[in-house]
Design goal:
globular, 14-stranded mixed beta sheet, mainly beta
């Protein structure tokens, strides 16, 4: 029953149970939650700018082959980190100004800037869900748009911020999920340890009923899909600090779209 309310922070962190097993070299945590301290609209309006509001619940986390007895300061070494049945809800209010004081760092830079050493052979996410909700900048109603990722499973290999010479050059992340409870999304990410190298993404969405997008399209774009199937949508791109370039291919059939805006075709 750990509860943390950081000073001047927008979240409350709580944990039901936490166990260190030195014999089994295992760490287990139950019911980790990160809850925002303010409502959906109040959260960002307090700062007067767009920002993502996260609401996270993770029933179980297990860290294997963790050197409990020989634990060094500022070091996290383990063979595997497993996250089970996580639920992540994200909300953004687009009516507020988009103010960015600094550029967002690339994933490789974020990993390197973690203030302690990390070396984990694999990080696995099991049977989780992500919901992204966005309130549009301009809307004729009072509804937000929602995108969902269910049955999400992901594995990242070579997760470290201290890569060995002659070892792997990338964090290899593979993700698979059900997109909008319809199509299958499969994506692979190559995140280089050397941030001067390009990041690579390859993936596809297949067998996707395009009418499943209506909960998002109706409110954000004022259009509705009456019929259509995305048979396959392969994509790939590379990106760095300066630019992103790639290709996306849409193979669809029997698509019918209508506008929901008055006096517009």
């Amino acid at each position: 029953d750990i509860r943390i309310v950081p000073q001047n922070n927008n979240y409350t962190i709580s944990l039901k149970d936490f166990m260190l097993n030195s014999l089994a070299r295992k760490v287990e945590a139950d019911s980790l939650s990160i809850k925002p301290r303010h409502g959906k609209f109040e959260f960002a309006h307090r700062d007067g700018k767009q920002k993502d509001r996260f609401d996270v619940m993770i029933p179980k986390i297990i860290l294997n082959d963790f050197p409990v007895k020989d634990l060094a300061d500022s070091t996290l070494i383990a063979s595997g980190l497993h996250i089970y049945a996580a639920t992540v809800k994200i909300f953004r209010d687009k009516r507020l100004p988009a103010i960015r004081i600094h550029d967002k760092p690339l994933p490789s830079v974020m990993l390197r800037e973690i203030p302690f050493a990390i070396g984990i052979d694999s990080v696995c996410i099991h049977d989780s869900a992500v919901v992204y909700e966005e309130f549009p900048e301009e809307t004729e109603g009072n509804q937000s748009g929602i995108i969902t990722f269910d049955d999400l499973n992901a594995t990242a290999y070579n997760v470290t911020n201290q890569p060995a010479a002659g070892g792997p050059e990338y964090v290899d992340l593979d993700v698979r999920a059900k997109f909008m409870n319809s199509g299958i999304l499969a994506v692979s990410f190559d995140i280089p340890f050397d941030h001067s190298k390009s990041h690579r993404v390859t993936g596809s969405v297949s067998n996707f009923d395009l009418t499943s997008l209506n909960p998002m399209l109706k409110n954000l774009a004022m259009i509705q899909v009456n019929s259509g199937t995305m048979h396959s949508m392969p994509f790939h791109f590379v990106y760095d600090n300066r630019a992103s370039a790639g290709e996306i291919e849409l193979n669809y059939g029997k698509l019918k779209v209508v506008s929901l805006q008055e006096k517009k075709e």
